[in-house]
Amino acid sequence: PSSANPLISADELEQTKFEIGPRRFVVEHLAHFIETEGVFWPHGYFRGIESDYWPEQFQAQVIAVDPALGQSKAAVRADKTRGSSLDYWAVVWIGFAEGLYWIDAVLKKSPPTDMIETALGMWAKTGQAMMVVEGNQFQQLLRPLMEAEGERQGLPPVPIHLVTNTVKKEIRVQRLDPYLAQRKIKVRNTVGCKTL
């Protein structure tokens, strides 16, 4: 284990543990292999994560839109067996206040027009936060729908920042480990957040 290496200080190990989270640290630096089949995090990470309390002001906020337009073949097969060809889309609002990340979310299996209406409604309601959209399909499919819906709602043009993900989704999700372990995330007590 890294803790037995005299060239690595205790401070360096503590910093690494803080950066990557305790579960990953135990596996990668202490050589203790944890069996958690089918889950990324222990259930304890989620105790007390739901909140009915909501701060009145936020230092920063962003809305992330995941259109879920690219399904894996396995997901398509699974959906067909349940009689649905739609995958979940997600509109997730994240705000930073009181040293914590506060999350509200809407996840649904419905057409992209519903997602766009939800995203723009959330954008107008939350003080016009920055909006980030996965860019892989945005230009050709979503931009015209978003512009039309924005006009319908009487909104000014929404500044959208496109993100192209090149890292596997599993790795991106595992990056949340330090924030969950340190209890830095609170989620609104809603159906969308429970689904998330």
What brief labels describe this structure?
seven-stranded mixed sheet, 7 strands, 20% strand, alpha/beta, elongated
Describe the structure.
The chain has helices spanning 10-20, 22-30, 73-82, 112-125, 138-153, 169-174, 177-181, 191-195; strands at 50-51, 60-66, 89-97, 100-108, 130-134, 160-163, 185-188. Helix 1 (10-20) packs across helix 2 (22-30) and helix 4 crosses helix 5. It has 196 residues and is of the alpha/beta class.
Q: Helix and strand layout, with pairings?
A:
Layout: H1 10-20, H2 22-30, E1 50-51, E2 60-66, H3 73-82, E3 89-97, E4 100-108, H4 112-125, E5 130-134, H5 138-153, E6 160-163, H6 169-174, H7 177-181, E7 185-188, H8 191-195
Parallel strand pairs: 1-7, 2-5, 4-7, 5-6
Antiparallel strand pairs: 2-3, 3-4
Structural class: alpha/beta
Specify the helix fraction band: 25-40%
Uncertain runs are 71-83
Largest sheet features: 7 strands, mixed
Shape: elongated
Termini separation (Å)? 35 Å
Cα gyration radius (Å): 20 Å
Brief overview:
This protein is α/β, with parallel strands linked by helices and 196 residues long.
